[in-house]
Specification:
Structural class: alpha/beta
Distance between the termini: 28 Å
Radius of gyration: 20 Å
Order of helices and strands: EEEHEEEEEEEHHEHEHEHEHEHEHEHE
Shape: globular
Largest sheet: 7 strands, mixed
């Protein structure tokens, strides 16, 4: 296949200083290294992590200037000389994990997200809020050509992350999972993956728009933390037998739900922490945790196998991404809505506008 015409400049949203805002400007188109591919990014989902990166919320520093984004879906337009298993024209995704060493103790046991030499799209290397981005060929997500690139973009982080969290919870078909932050970008996908895995869902979030969305996606119950007088009692009452959910997925962007979770998890249940609120702490009573044999764990992004599995659920039509599309030039507006907790579902940016 002939190489497509690649420009020398492109539009991008650039974080020039910690705290933002992002600056919409032209920058050079990067060149792929020997083991990399250049992707013409068509669409990119907007993740809360992108806001954290701009604001400098986390203890790991970002590169500056920084092009954020790590849910990019597009088309391969160039490849390095060592890449022989990806063709020009292939549809691929750029994920949070841009590269890893592939040879450490973590990479060798399929825990490549824990690699000490890992690089992260939109954080330590430039990401997908640009029209052309590079990624290590070993870590691109292979997207079947029958998949809509606009709709599949949020799967590349939000979908993979919640699917991995559900696997880590070890919840089995017929059991109950509580999803905190269920109306957001990750939560709306978590509801669907949970239902596809045979789980009953208690959705926890705030507001009528999110209530409607969560119930439409298959949640058995919606609990509004804005109006509930006793979240702990309400969650236990909504569980199958009143003992609490078998698993809890904490996707919230605030600390308070993390502190509440230990009070309503059922005996031998599992709490899975996924969200990363700024400077948050998690605490649980030692006595209750021990005598109820509760498991508390963190779940990070999925590995390459998790990615392929999460995409297969989407390809089969089991997962539908609730999203709204805006132009790349309007990215700062989405960040503002995120800070005001006004985002239901996911926003996807069209890099052509």
């Amino acid at each position: 296949m002939d190489s497509p015409q690649i420009p020398t400049e492109q539009w991008a949203q650039v974080v020039e200083q910690t705290g933002g805002p992002v600056v919409y400007k032209k920058i050079p188109v990067p060149q792929p290294g020997l083991d990399e591919v250049l992707v013409n990014v068509k669409y990119s989902g907007v993740c809360h992590t992108d806001l954290h990166a701009m604001l400098g919320d986390w203890p790991i520093p970002t590169k500056l200037p920084l092009v954020g984004g790590h849910e990019g879906a597009g088309v391969v337009v160039a490849r390095g000389d060592l890449v022989d298993d990806i063709d020009l024209g292939d549809h691929v995704g750029i994920k949070w994990l841009n590269s890893s060493c592939l040879n450490c103790a973590f990479c060798n046991q399929a825990d490549e997200p824990l690699c000490r030499k890992a690089l992260f799209s939109g954080y330590t290397v430039d990401g997908t809020f640009q029209q052309y981005a590079v990624v290590k060929a070993a870590h691109v997500a292979r997207i079947p050509k029958e998949c809509n690139l606009e709709a599949v973009a949020p799967i590349l982080c939000a979908g993979i992350t919640v699917y991995k969290g559900l696997k880590e919870s070890a919840a089995r078909p017929g059991q109950c999972v509580a999803i905190i932050g269920a109306g957001g970008g990750l939560g709306t996908l978590a509801i669907q993956y949970a239902r596809a895995l045979g789980l009953d869902v208690i959705a926890i979030d705030g507001g009528d728009e999110k209530r409607k969305l969560c119930l439409e996606l298959g949640a058995a119950v919606f609990i509004d933390f804005l109006t509930s007088n006793d979240i702990v009692a309400d969650v236990k009452a909504a569980s199958l037998d009143g003992l609490g959910p078998h698993a809890i997925l904490l996707i919230a962007a605030e600390e308070k739900p993390f502190q509440q979770a230990a009070k309503y998890i059922r005996p031998r249940g599992t709490i899975v922490c996924i969200g990363l609120p700024h400077d948050a702490m998690f605490s649980a009573p030692v006595f209750d945790t021990v005598i109820n044999m509760v498991s508390i764990k963190g779940s990070y992004v999925g590995n390459r196998a998790d990615t392929a599995e999460a995409l297969e659920f989407f390809r089969k039509g089991l997962i539908h991404t609730p999203y709204k599309t805006i132009g790349l030039s309007n990215l700062q507006d989405v960040y503002q809505m995120m800070q005001e907790n006004k985002v239901a579902g996911r926003y996807v940016v069209d890099t052509s506008t």
